[in-house]
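[audit] Reproducing an earlier prediction to check determinism. Same input, same settings, fresh worker. If the C-alpha coordinates differ from the archived copy the diff job will pick it up downstream; this log only records the rerun itself.
[audit] input (213 residues):
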Amino acid sequence: MQISEPTATKIAEYLLQIKAIKLQPNNPFTWASGLKSPIYSDNRLSLSHPAIRSFIKEALAQEIRNTYPNVEAIIGVATAGIAPGALVADALNLPFGYVRSEPKKHGMGKQVEGDISPAMSVVVIEDLVSTGKSSLQAIETLREFGSNVLGLASIFTYGLKIAEDNFAAANCPMISLCNYDVLIETAVQKGYVNDADTAVLKSWRTNPEAFGK
Protein backbone atom coordinates (compact mmCIF):
# COMPACT_ATOMS: atom_id res chain seq x y z
CA MET A 1 0.00 0.00 0.00
CA GLN A 2 1.18 3.54 -0.82
CA ILE A 3 1.36 5.83 2.21
CA SER A 4 0.48 9.48 1.58
CA GLU A 5 3.47 11.52 0.43
CA PRO A 6 3.06 14.28 3.07
CA THR A 7 3.13 11.68 5.85
CA ALA A 8 6.15 9.86 4.41
CA THR A 9 8.04 13.12 3.89
CA LYS A 10 7.28 14.35 7.41
CA ILE A 11 8.49 11.07 8.89
CA ALA A 12 11.70 11.34 6.83
CA GLU A 13 12.25 14.91 8.04
CA TYR A 14 11.75 13.88 11.66
CA LEU A 15 14.05 10.84 11.48
CA LEU A 16 16.83 12.86 9.83
CA GLN A 17 16.37 15.76 12.25
CA ILE A 18 16.87 13.63 15.38
CA LYS A 19 19.54 11.47 13.71
CA ALA A 20 17.41 8.35 14.06
CA ILE A 21 18.59 7.75 10.50
CA LYS A 22 22.25 8.38 9.78
CA LEU A 23 23.71 8.61 6.27
CA GLN A 24 27.41 7.83 5.81
CA PRO A 25 28.06 7.14 2.11
CA ASN A 26 31.83 7.31 2.53
CA ASN A 27 32.06 5.44 5.82
CA PRO A 28 29.49 2.63 5.61
CA PHE A 29 28.02 0.84 8.58
CA THR A 30 28.13 -2.94 9.03
CA TRP A 31 24.78 -4.50 9.86
CA ALA A 32 24.42 -7.56 12.09
CA SER A 33 23.98 -9.61 8.91
CA GLY A 34 27.42 -8.48 7.73
CA LEU A 35 25.92 -6.32 4.99
CA LYS A 36 27.71 -3.01 4.37
CA SER A 37 25.37 -0.05 4.25
CA PRO A 38 25.65 3.76 3.90
CA ILE A 39 22.54 4.13 6.06
CA TYR A 40 21.74 3.15 9.64
CA SER A 41 18.36 3.45 11.32
CA ASP A 42 17.60 3.57 15.05
CA ASN A 43 13.96 4.61 15.27
CA ARG A 44 13.95 4.04 19.04
CA LEU A 45 15.27 7.60 19.27
CA SER A 46 11.85 8.88 18.23
CA LEU A 47 10.48 7.69 21.57
CA SER A 48 12.49 10.41 23.34
CA HIS A 49 10.76 13.18 21.37
CA PRO A 50 7.10 13.53 22.41
CA ALA A 51 5.88 15.44 19.33
CA ILE A 52 7.56 13.01 16.93
CA ARG A 53 6.46 10.00 18.96
CA SER A 54 2.86 11.22 18.85
CA PHE A 55 2.99 11.90 15.11
CA ILE A 56 4.27 8.40 14.41
CA LYS A 57 1.70 6.83 16.76
CA GLU A 58 -1.22 8.62 15.12
CA ALA A 59 0.06 7.98 11.59
CA LEU A 60 0.45 4.25 12.25
CA ALA A 61 -2.94 4.10 13.95
CA GLN A 62 -4.64 5.82 11.02
CA GLU A 63 -3.01 3.56 8.42
CA ILE A 64 -4.06 0.49 10.42
CA ARG A 65 -7.65 1.79 10.64
CA ASN A 66 -7.65 2.26 6.87
CA THR A 67 -5.84 -0.92 5.85
CA TYR A 68 -6.76 -3.46 8.53
CA PRO A 69 -10.20 -2.39 9.82
CA ASN A 70 -10.90 -5.84 11.31
CA VAL A 71 -7.85 -5.84 13.59
CA GLU A 72 -8.52 -7.14 17.10
CA ALA A 73 -5.07 -6.78 18.69
CA ILE A 74 -1.69 -5.15 18.08
CA ILE A 75 1.48 -7.21 18.43
CA GLY A 76 4.98 -5.72 18.71
CA VAL A 77 8.14 -7.53 17.67
CA ALA A 78 10.68 -7.62 20.50
CA THR A 79 12.38 -5.47 21.19
CA ALA A 80 12.16 -2.42 18.94
CA GLY A 81 8.51 -2.97 18.00
CA ILE A 82 7.25 -3.15 21.58
CA ALA A 83 7.09 0.57 22.41
CA PRO A 84 5.54 1.81 19.14
CA GLY A 85 3.20 -1.18 19.21
CA ALA A 86 1.97 -0.33 22.69
CA LEU A 87 1.45 3.32 21.68
CA VAL A 88 -0.56 2.31 18.62
CA ALA A 89 -2.65 -0.18 20.60
CA ASP A 90 -3.46 2.60 23.05
CA ALA A 91 -4.46 4.95 20.21
CA LEU A 92 -6.72 2.26 18.76
CA ASN A 93 -8.01 1.10 22.18
CA LEU A 94 -6.97 -2.47 21.38
CA PRO A 95 -5.25 -5.26 23.32
CA PHE A 96 -1.46 -5.37 23.03
CA GLY A 97 1.06 -8.18 23.17
CA TYR A 98 4.50 -8.89 21.83
CA VAL A 99 6.53 -11.70 20.33
CA ARG A 100 9.89 -12.79 21.71
CA SER A 101 12.62 -13.96 19.34
CA GLU A 102 12.57 -17.27 21.23
CA PRO A 103 10.50 -18.80 24.04
CA LYS A 104 11.21 -17.58 27.55
CA LYS A 105 13.66 -19.94 29.23
CA HIS A 106 11.89 -19.92 32.60
CA GLY A 107 8.43 -19.49 34.08
CA MET A 108 5.67 -20.27 31.56
CA GLY A 109 8.09 -20.47 28.64
CA LYS A 110 5.98 -18.09 26.57
CA GLN A 111 7.00 -16.66 23.22
CA VAL A 112 3.82 -14.67 22.63
CA GLU A 113 3.37 -12.36 25.63
CA GLY A 114 0.15 -10.68 26.73
CA ASP A 115 -3.46 -11.69 27.22
CA ILE A 116 -3.88 -12.53 23.54
CA SER A 117 -6.32 -15.21 22.39
CA PRO A 118 -4.90 -17.50 19.67
CA ALA A 119 -7.75 -16.85 17.23
CA MET A 120 -7.45 -13.04 17.26
CA SER A 121 -6.87 -11.09 14.05
CA VAL A 122 -3.67 -9.13 14.69
CA VAL A 123 -1.44 -6.52 13.09
CA VAL A 124 2.28 -6.75 13.77
CA ILE A 125 4.33 -3.60 14.47
CA GLU A 126 8.01 -3.14 13.66
CA ASP A 127 10.14 -0.02 13.86
CA LEU A 128 12.15 -1.00 10.76
CA VAL A 129 12.11 -3.51 7.91
CA SER A 130 15.41 -4.41 6.24
CA THR A 131 15.40 -7.94 4.82
CA GLY A 132 12.22 -8.80 6.73
CA LYS A 133 13.76 -11.91 8.28
CA SER A 134 13.12 -11.11 11.97
CA SER A 135 9.66 -9.71 11.24
CA LEU A 136 8.62 -12.83 9.35
CA GLN A 137 9.99 -15.09 12.09
CA ALA A 138 7.65 -13.29 14.49
CA ILE A 139 4.77 -13.63 12.04
CA GLU A 140 5.42 -17.37 11.69
CA THR A 141 5.43 -17.69 15.49
CA LEU A 142 2.06 -15.93 15.66
CA ARG A 143 0.61 -18.15 12.94
CA GLU A 144 1.77 -21.24 14.81
CA PHE A 145 0.17 -19.75 17.93
CA GLY A 146 -3.12 -19.58 16.00
CA SER A 147 -3.30 -15.86 15.22
CA ASN A 148 -4.79 -14.52 12.01
CA VAL A 149 -2.00 -12.13 10.96
CA LEU A 150 -3.61 -9.43 8.84
CA GLY A 151 -0.29 -7.80 8.02
CA LEU A 152 2.64 -5.77 9.31
CA ALA A 153 3.08 -2.03 9.77
CA SER A 154 6.44 -0.32 10.29
CA ILE A 155 7.84 3.16 10.70
CA PHE A 156 10.49 2.79 7.98
CA THR A 157 11.54 0.33 5.31
CA TYR A 158 14.66 0.21 3.17
CA GLY A 159 12.51 -1.15 0.37
CA LEU A 160 14.95 -3.93 -0.46
CA LYS A 161 13.79 -6.42 -3.07
CA ILE A 162 14.71 -9.31 -0.81
CA ALA A 163 12.23 -7.99 1.79
CA GLU A 164 9.50 -7.60 -0.82
CA ASP A 165 10.14 -11.15 -2.02
CA ASN A 166 10.19 -12.52 1.53
CA PHE A 167 6.87 -10.90 2.47
CA ALA A 168 5.29 -12.01 -0.80
CA ALA A 169 6.46 -15.60 -0.23
CA ALA A 170 4.99 -15.49 3.29
CA ASN A 171 1.73 -14.09 1.93
CA CYS A 172 1.89 -11.22 4.40
CA PRO A 173 0.92 -7.64 3.42
CA MET A 174 3.23 -4.89 4.67
CA ILE A 175 2.84 -1.12 4.98
CA SER A 176 5.40 1.43 6.15
CA LEU A 177 5.09 5.12 7.00
CA CYS A 178 8.29 6.00 5.13
CA ASN A 179 10.62 4.34 2.66
CA TYR A 180 14.15 4.70 1.32
CA ASP A 181 13.19 6.62 -1.83
CA VAL A 182 11.30 9.30 0.12
CA LEU A 183 14.10 9.48 2.68
CA ILE A 184 16.80 10.12 0.07
CA GLU A 185 14.65 12.67 -1.75
CA THR A 186 14.05 14.48 1.55
CA ALA A 187 17.74 14.31 2.50
CA VAL A 188 18.67 15.95 -0.82
CA GLN A 189 16.04 18.69 -0.44
CA LYS A 190 17.10 19.44 3.14
CA GLY A 191 20.83 19.49 2.32
CA TYR A 192 21.86 16.41 4.30
CA VAL A 193 23.66 14.94 1.25
CA ASN A 194 25.28 16.23 -1.94
CA ASP A 195 24.99 14.88 -5.50
CA ALA A 196 27.93 12.48 -5.09
CA ASP A 197 26.49 11.12 -1.85
CA THR A 198 23.11 10.68 -3.51
CA ALA A 199 24.64 8.57 -6.29
CA VAL A 200 26.28 6.30 -3.70
CA LEU A 201 23.06 5.96 -1.70
CA LYS A 202 21.08 5.04 -4.80
CA SER A 203 23.69 2.52 -5.95
CA TRP A 204 23.52 0.74 -2.57
CA ARG A 205 19.80 0.13 -2.89
CA THR A 206 20.32 -1.30 -6.39
CA ASN A 207 22.81 -3.94 -5.22
CA PRO A 208 23.29 -3.93 -1.42
CA GLU A 209 25.10 -7.28 -1.36
CA ALA A 210 27.93 -5.91 -3.51
CA PHE A 211 28.22 -2.55 -1.78
CA GLY A 212 31.62 -1.81 -0.23
CA LYS A 213 33.30 -4.89 -1.76
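[audit] rerun output stored. Observation attached for the diff report: Residues 5-210 form a domain with the Rossmann fold fold (CATH 3.40.50.2020).
[audit] end
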